[in-house]
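Usage

Read records sequentially. Each one opens with the input sequence:
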Amino acid sequence: MTSSHAIETIAQLEALFGQPGDAALKKEVPYLHPSYRALIAASPFAVLATIGPGGLDASPRGDPPGFVAVQDEKTLLMPERRGNNRIDSLRNIVADPRVALLFLIPGVGETLRVNGKAQLTVEPALLERFAMDGKQPQCVIRITVETVFFQCARAIHRSKLWAPVPADAQRTVPTPGAILSALTEAAFDGETYDRELPARQRATLY
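and closes with the structure output:
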């Protein structure tokens, strides 16, 4: 059933929001401008968005700042570290190369958005280039850049994302083990999972 309050056309949407300002348009470029390279070099965390036959996927990627390398003004290289082997994002890239990246920098309000097309590679020189602690990534994601622009800081300010966390703050959300136990109606040993998780994560970080 269609609501009388639903926005169903671009014309309705544009009438509601109006036109973007001059700065909002001029900040978008089809290449990695030196200013945008500086943001990428400072970022230790990005969200990778993909699309494929199974639907959409958005997943976190992180490493020391600059972990996504700028190959040239149209190319980014991102190492794919070991994980849980679901490889949802990678399956999508093989099926549909369209990707989007959102880079975050701790303490900085502005984020950086990159759209482009990706390809997976196991080129030996690239795997060696991104080795950490003597361990190579599973593969490298090569991204051909189509558009780049920074996002203003309003969302970060509203969320207080970078506000200091009180030293005595208590965890108020379920632990991974508790979630798994709840999803399986206690068939999964969540307490053991939580107890062993920190050591397992340290041992399998790379």
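Summary fields computed downstream for this record:
- Strands lie at 45-52, 55-62, 69-72, 75-80, 98-104, 111-121, 139-151.
- The longest strand covers residues 139-151.
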